[in-house]
Amino acid sequence: MDYVAALDVGGTTMKGGLVARDGTVHDLRRRPTPRAEGPERVIAAISAFAADLARPRAGIRPLAVGLAVPGLVTATHAVFSAAFGWRDVPVAAFTEGVDLPVALGHDVRSAGEAEMAFGSGGDDVLYLPIGTGIAGALVLSKALYGGAGGWAGQIGHIPVRPGGAACGCGGRGCLAAYASGGAMAARYGVDGAEEVARRAGEGDARAAEVWDEAVAALALALTTYTLLLDPAAIVIGGGVAQAGGTLLVPLRERMAGLLAFRRPPPIRTSRLGAVAGVMGAGLLGWRAL
Amino acid sequence: MDYVAALDVGGTTMKGGLVARDGTVHDLRRRPTPRAEGPERVIAAISAFAADLARPRAGIRPLAVGLAVPGLVTATHAVFSAAFGWRDVPVAAFTEGVDLPVALGHDVRSAGEAEMAFGSGGDDVLYLPIGTGIAGALVLSKALYGGAGGWAGQIGHIPVRPGGAACGCGGRGCLAAYASGGAMAARYGVDGAEEVARRAGEGDARAAEVWDEAVAALALALTTYTLLLDPAAIVIGGGVAQAGGTLLVPLRERMAGLLAFRRPPPIRTSRLGAVAGVMGAGLLGWRAL
């Protein structure tokens, strides 16, 4: 079977693998993203991982490389990332020594494409992975919508509490400053948002407060999204979606309270789970051919 | 020349006229909308105006009627309006005794279509008339976007100050509760928003405060819109747009301050002015044929 090498760069973990045309992921591997060590080290780590994935092994010779990164991304450059603090990184810097066709893309939009192709689908859907950061893939009239300049979907940075908590993007009160996995973990002082969810469930008052503020911020942002774009459904992915009902039940309740004259759309978690990003990077790789 | 009768129902004024295929408006007339007298009286006033417009006169026999109303609207019903407090009004109730093809549509989306057809155009544009109320027409990839159920564009009811001022929609802290012409006039205690703008310009402190809060609310909403949808331009119409630079200059400034990592899109006022709504209703009429 033919494969492409696929690399999905998250704020905490990079996931790589070989992806077949039908979306099957083979040889899935994870490496930590050295975010705290600065953009140069992250770029070097991506480049090393991409080179390893592109190398032939066990009889499989990948045909291309698909690379998905967060932030503002064009086909040729990673323009900006609040998580990594880089600006205008050319695709070649991420794939030094790789002698295959390479396609660069936006992590969340690529994962959204995978969701459309292999997951739950839908004509008008917001696909919203919540991991270390938050961004959305907007499926409008059956197609991914990138906006006038390809920068649509920055829902993580809409101001839900103007003047509030500082965000990595330089703004204040952004959704991501409350509801991203990274922000929740940092606010409570643990390594991951799942720990916040677990302790909130055990009755820890500070954990419950952090979780509630995250849900409140998310409800506000999704209420705004719903009023602007009237989606048929909202699909939440990423690590934070693994909280399931602990997230969805209070989120639905708050949205119903905020929406005065219409119902919230159905909100569910992604069927593809954490592998959506790699599948999306795989779609990029196939497009490079 | 052939004409259709066109009626644009605003929260304060109804505008009617005859509209040719090329958008030319003939015999423009205005009548007050009896909003304070309740939904039944508004429906009766619309019906009487529509019947008058549909009647042959001066050698012109209109071919159809286009009717544009605010709120949630389908082709057959005015489903809901916060301004008028009606629910599920069938199109026939608006056009009693009219013996011509009739098309019902959304006031702002129709005006947005007129803006696309006869105004400034653009592939990815938010067209935002600010009159008694606020709603937006979303032009995405050259087409009006209505969402999964036709309810997209309710930007007037996104929560910019959660728990804040009461809005006619039943919610609190909506954009329209601060930045609509109706809200500004009511908060300052005059008949129209132009009076608020004028007095703010003359140094009246309370008028300046009301105006500033409106601009701040609008800047927040348009920042959110920009981050979500990356428009090429935002075109502001309706009565409040007549304030020109008094609105646009502080609005651009505030948006630039709120957007941490990208520039605001160009923001300008509509070229069609107050007649955009009638031209849009005319497009509905032509479609009825």
TrEMBL record, chains A, B:
<keyword id="KW-0808">Transferase</keyword>
<keyword id="KW-0418">Kinase</keyword>
<dbReference type="InterPro" id="IPR000600">
    <property type="entry name" value="ROK"/>
</dbReference>
<dbReference type="Pfam" id="PF00480">
    <property type="entry name" value="ROK"/>
</dbReference>
<dbReference type="InterPro" id="IPR043129">
    <property type="entry name" value="ATPase_NBD"/>
</dbReference>
<protein>
    <submittedName>
        <fullName>Glucokinase</fullName>
    </submittedName>
</protein>
<comment type="similarity">
    <text>Belongs to the ROK (NagC/XylR) family.</text>
</comment>
<dbReference type="GO" id="GO:0016301">
    <property type="term" value="F:kinase activity"/>
</dbReference>
